[in-house]
Amino acid sequence: MSIKFFLGLLISLLVTSCVTQVLRPKLTGTIVDEQGKPLDSCLVGGAYTDHNGNYELPEITAVRLFSFFGGSPIFLGEPVHKEGYEPKELVGGNRRGGVSVGSVWNMDTIRLRKTLTDFSKVKVQDHWLASMTKNLDTVFMTKKDLMYDRTKIDFIARKHNTYAKGYYYLGIDNLPKNVFERHIALDLTDSILDIQRVLIYGDVKTSEKTKYDTIYTQGKWKQEHKTLFFKTELQELNGTYKVVNFNYDSMELIKQ
Hints:
By secondary structure, the protein is mainly beta. The protein contains two helices and 18 strands.
């Protein structure tokens, strides 16, 4: 057989081995407000909702060589935005992949809350978690035991998590020496402030946690307009703070 024959056979096999894989199936769903009223003109990915709050995102496919292991996993992350409302994210996925062409995913209804512009509407009296920068000039607080909502984009809560755990590999060295994590729980349900602080020590090189140091203490606190006052024996928290960023579930404070 000639070389041309083998080349022709190879090209033929490659062409017939090409398949269409779904990168994102067609997505449909609804966006509503806190009362369940449909929200029109809400941007979901690259599409807007209609007057009934419904959206439709088209299927995205790609032509690839055939794989004996099935299609690639699918992970969705489409931003959901409407002016005057807290942003969220349309998420979903199929780790096994292999979604057939023409598939339609009917997504869960997403409920958006109006953006808060008046701090007096924020109910601070609750259970909170706090973390702070190394020089203690900025505190990030988020409500404790808040159900994790991976569709919600909360930049303050993300900063809280980042500064509570340090993340040395990102260059964020804001914790005391050999401390991996610092968790501060605040009970603000009364004028008497109950505090629990947990320091988790470990080996930076091996990332092994070696010791837990927990203290309990009390103090006082109060709120006046956009200012919070903490009078405690806990160095990390004691002082006067101005609330510079906030929403229903988290807030960012700057020490005065």
